[in-house]
Design goal:
There is one protein chain. Helices cover 74% and strands 0% of the residues. By secondary structure, the chain is mainly alpha-helical. It has a domain at 51-98. Helix 2 packs antiparallel against helix 3 (70-101). It is elongated.
Length: 115
């Protein structure tokens, strides 16, 4: 059994070291400081923002060209397409960054053949 600390300050320092170690371990488990959550919110914001921007530009086009509702419909479709494209690119970039950080996973080999 370890010897008890001599003073209250030593006990407090020991407790803080243990607490820091536990917090560091927990941060590794959840992927750092919420980086994955931030990236998820970024993707959602890109999708919603692109659609809303397309709708807004389509509405403006309709107001000036008097082509209602075709500008709004076109803006919605173009905004959805562009925002989906940028979200896919961002997700691919995030996946590449995550694969650089993670160690490679060995494939398992199954000796049993199902017949």
């Amino acid at each position: 059994m370890p010897n008890p600390p001599d003073t209250r300050d030593e006990a407090l320092e020991s407790f803080e070291r243990k607490l820091d170690a536990i917090e560091a371990k927990q941060n590794r488990k959840i992927g750092g400081s919420g980086q994955a959550l931030n990236q998820g919110y970024q993707l959602v914001a890109e999708l919603i923002g692109g659609v809303l921007a397309g709708i807004g530009l389509g509405w403006l086009f309709d107001r000036f060209a008097h082509t209602s509702p075709w500008g709004l419909i076109g803006g919605l479709l173009i905004g959805a397409g562009v925002s989906s494209y940028t979200a896919v690119l961002a997700a691919g970039r995030m996946s590449d960054e995550a694969s650089k950080d993670a160690p490679p996973v060995a494939a398992t080999f199954d000796d049993d053949e199902d017949e």
